[in-house]
Model the fold of this input.
Amino acid sequence: MGLLNPRNLAYLASLALLVAIYLRARAKPTLEVSSLMLFDEVAAPVASSRVLRTDPMFWLELAALGALSMALAGLYIRSAEAAAHHRTRALIFDLGAAMGAREANGTRLDEARRQALEIVAAARPGDNFSVIGYALEATVYRAPTSHLADVRRTIDGLKPAALPARAAAMRAALMRARGAPEIDLFTDHAPASGLLNLAGAGTRVHLHRVGTPAVNLAIVALEPGTVGASPGRVVVRNFSDRPQICEIALDLDAQSVLSTIIMLEPRGQAVLPFGPLKHGGVVQARIVTADALDADNRRWALALNDKPDRALVMSPSPEARDDLARVLLAVNQNLIVTAVDPVKFNLATAPRYRLAVLEDAYDPGIKASARLIIYPPPWLERSPPPSWQLPVVGTVAMAEMQERTNGEQLDEPLALSPARILSLPRWMDVMAHGTGAGSGGSFPLAAFGYDARGAMGMIAFSVNDHLLLDPDKLEALVLTVDMVKRLLAPQDLQVVSTGDSVSVPAIGVARIVAPDGSVSTARADEMGRVRLRPIEAGRYEVSSARTRAVIYANYYDAGESDLSAAPPAPAPSAPGASATASSSAAAAATRVEPIAPWLVAFALAAMLLGSALLTRKAMRWRARDV
Amino acid sequence: MLEARAFEPDFLRRLDGLVLGVQRSRTVREGRRALGRVQGLGIEPESFKEYTEGDDLRFMDWNAFARLDDLMIRTFRTEREIEVTILVDASASMSVPREDDKLGFALALAASLAYVAMASNDAVRLGAFSTARGGAARLETSALHRRRETYPAFQPFVSAVRTGGATQMTEAMGRLLLERRPAGTIVLISDFLVSAAEYEQALRSLLRARHEVKVIHVLGDRESTASYPPGHYRVRDSETGEMCEVTLGAMAAETCRRRVERLAADLAAFCAANRIVYARAFGASHFDDIVMREFPRLGLVR
Done:
């Protein structure tokens, strides 16, 4: 027997109030009379000094209030589970990057693994275990099984990803484990308040906090600058509460550009300029100093060559043309931008462009390595549309951007100008979702993909009225810049963030070599692309019959990289949750049964009985005294 | 306060037709007082008697002497001025129960009777007796007023009466008699919540001084009907401070009512035996009825 919310025992103070009310009601008032002669013959009271004489109403109210207070305090009883009943436990592992942080005896995941294996070792025959991991999303690695050897193998096979452990993923993992009466959650981060309640009533969540404070340095950003023009910079951050020495090395295509040692102040960051670079290529920054987490010690960036490229901006709006040209030049100063009205564009004399940006205009068949379609008009011609024309389903007068890539919700929805609702081909990946009045749900606001003609981006909202230069709508500009960067990036050499969906050209079966050297294969789709989602920081190589592509995956997350936070005192928030493996092991043979419903039912019955007594008393008074 | 009712013009107009029921004519008898005897000075002949030495020659019936040759003295009924004293019990018991306003009720009755008494241009005064701080009886009386025009002069006295202390009726009457006023009419208004011996001794002392005594027994609505809310109480005597515990209910109320009736009956029996007019005035809510109907019925006023 115990209490789930002992603080609610404060409601028992109402009992003292009830007693005080009754004592006061029972106290004899003093009646001043002209003379006691008038009361000479009145009989003395029978029970003048009994303080706690039997009063059914008082005891009924006392019982009702007590029962309600205990219900609020969450009184529960522990009962031994039937011996024949096999338990099911879900083992949920945080597989975020921080779980790969090194400690004295291996990584944090190793410690979690050790604790989990102890639980499995203490299991009785017939007990079921499921193994669930989460980082960017929740994955069931092992469905509930009583084959403990499989469970052990699965636990041993878990690896941390270079991804942040998202709260939504933890929520999804808890939801997936809902069928299990007991859940063991292994993480190095304190779950958000109330998150463990998602496990559901009657489910015990044992929170196992692993990890000790550790020193970590991380490369926050790497900007290569413009080749031959502007310097680049690398930003390094110290997540320790003490000053740290940091040795930084910077390479351009395996040639050293910078190597320096700096002192980082506690929880400070430093910006190191370098360059300008003499030529384009892959820039790699790395922290040479050893720290707890490797994933955020390397970062890659692509420095575009200073070779001038042609870019076309086509829009009926001069303002939009001007804004888009500015964005293109901001991304790459070496572009030669041609801005033109669609009605004046001559396809016959047009050269081949590195990038063509079409705003509110049809694509007449422009020769370009990459195309960005913005606010495409619906096809109104009588002739059938060309194959590259994106079919427009509808238009909304005003759209709101709800989430960006990776499913991250924006803090506040971003109000945009009119937008088209498009039916996207399967080879395009959505980069942003939005909603609009009358759209009946969310629709893609931005997408990217490769077709037979090359890279293709789509932005569904209009950029008129200087939308891209509006400081209140910075997300629209960021989205556009990201899109342009992806379009200008070479197909066979990409720098992405871990967790991003990447598409590379391939023919037939492609061989994928991960940063840790593991090899896997994937079959190219009908568009000749292979898709993958890097979950490790480092270099991926995708090779097929006649193609070869290299992908550099960067990882950095401010919350995940901060390893200095000490695990606080365990504070289980789920009903009956315990905090440590040891306590959960001790409680393993018992089952918690809240008895609040029974207490409430008892209180209701007491109130009903009290009402009946009152009614009877009132009827009797009316007959005799009133 | 109810005493203000006795000074309302509408109420006083209704009293205009009433007169105090007093024995106005009284024979002047020879008594033990040999000196300073007072011959009746009225105009209504009462009797004749033989002349004796010392009789006032002004009352000699010379016609009878001429016919009978006897010296005869003519005697007359005296038409006296009656001095009316209306005494109100101002002991602590008269202020309890507070909602009954017993003192106000008694003062209103006293003032009303004073107004009625002034119809005959009799000398009227009001008095109140209570107990002073030292425990001695205290008697306060107003000045004598005769004409109704001076009736409002009673109002300051009535307003100034405050209750306090125990009922010392015998001692208060003793103080009154020490004033050695001529025998007159004394109206005593009290709740008579004292022992029978106390009020009997007080009333007898007044009778012995040849006063015509009238008694008005005042009780409040609540205490006369014992209409207390049911429950357990500690009951405190307002005069002595004594306490006892009682449980009030329907039965107890009935017992209290019976007790009140018995006290009133004892007082009425004593008054009847001693030719004292006894009037019961229970409940201030019946003030008008008591003054306009009950008092005339009992002969207190006519």
In short: The first strand of chain B starts at residue 25 and ends at 26.
